[in-house]
């Protein structure tokens, strides 16, 4: 039998470890998807499925699949596979992680993942936007598993032609998600041209820069709005007039996000609605341009 002294020493060693350990792994919790990228998802470094146990944290999952270094007592990931955070030339880059498309408010050593979760680590320049609270790139999340073990219903708010909203509705139906009910405490999928949705308090953030919206795209003008695309420095990199579309996830508070499917005109909204699906994966937000196909934003 193991001595009490030996057990105490083992527990002390666990407490000192960066990732920590427990007396046992616990029961199986199913599988999750781990994605590691850099530069706003533009380069995929790792993507795999991993089986998790009851004792797992997001940090433990990352640690057994990659080579990491940590700081601040193991609570902050400094590097993954040799790519380390740092500052230079007035700009700063670090690692951030999302669970089902939601930026976590707690550290990776404290977050307990669940089966079905999509964990996404991304290394990015955060000088132009310290926070990006929600992204679309973990599709079909957060519609299936929500966040922190809480599943949210979905609500489709239509401010476009019925055919366009029907496209968005069918994409949700295919997930087994019934978009109905009131927007309160639900993921709202708001569909409509910019002039039709800009009066919405959350959607109105898309008229501002990424430091407020977390989205590296914005609409400029009202009568004939332009969709302006930004690079990761937050600088204008081009604009789209007729037919420009955008899918973005906004989360100004602590509740469920609002997905905005919009465009400079009806054609742009229709093109954006048609992209609700796997094309969103590993993108913070996705724009469309006639003849050019999907455009991940921020743009290079």
Summary keywords:
16% helix; Ferric Hydroxamate Uptake Protein, Chain A, domain 1; Chitobiase, domain 2; 2 domains; six-stranded mixed β-sheet; alpha+beta; 300 residues; disordered N terminus; 34% strand
Low-pLDDT residue intervals, each spanning 5 or more residues = 1-23
General shape = globular
Structural class: alpha+beta
Rg, rounded, reads: 21 Å
Amino- and carboxy-terminal Cα gap: 61 Å
**Percent of residues in helices:** 10-25%
Mean pLDDT figure: 90
Question: What is the CATH class name of the largest domain?
Answer: Alpha Beta
The string of secondary-structure elements, in order, is HEEHEEEEEEEEHEHHEEEEEHEE
Query: What is the number of E strands?
Result: 18
Number of helices: 6
Under the CATH scheme, the architecture of the largest domain is 2-Layer Sandwich
What is the fold named in CATH at topology level of the largest domain? Chitobiase, domain 2
The biggest beta sheet reads:
6 strands, mixed
Count of structural domains: 2
What is the beta-strand fraction?
25-35%
Explain this structure to me?
It is a single chain. Strand 17 (285-289) and strand 18 (293-297) form a beta hairpin. Strands 1, 2, 6, 7, 8 and 9 form a six-stranded mixed beta sheet that branches. 16% of the residues lie in helices and 34% in strands. It is built from six helices and 18 strands. Helix 3 runs parallel beside helix 6. The protein is α+β, with helices and mostly antiparallel strands and 300 residues long. The protein is globular and about 55 Å long.
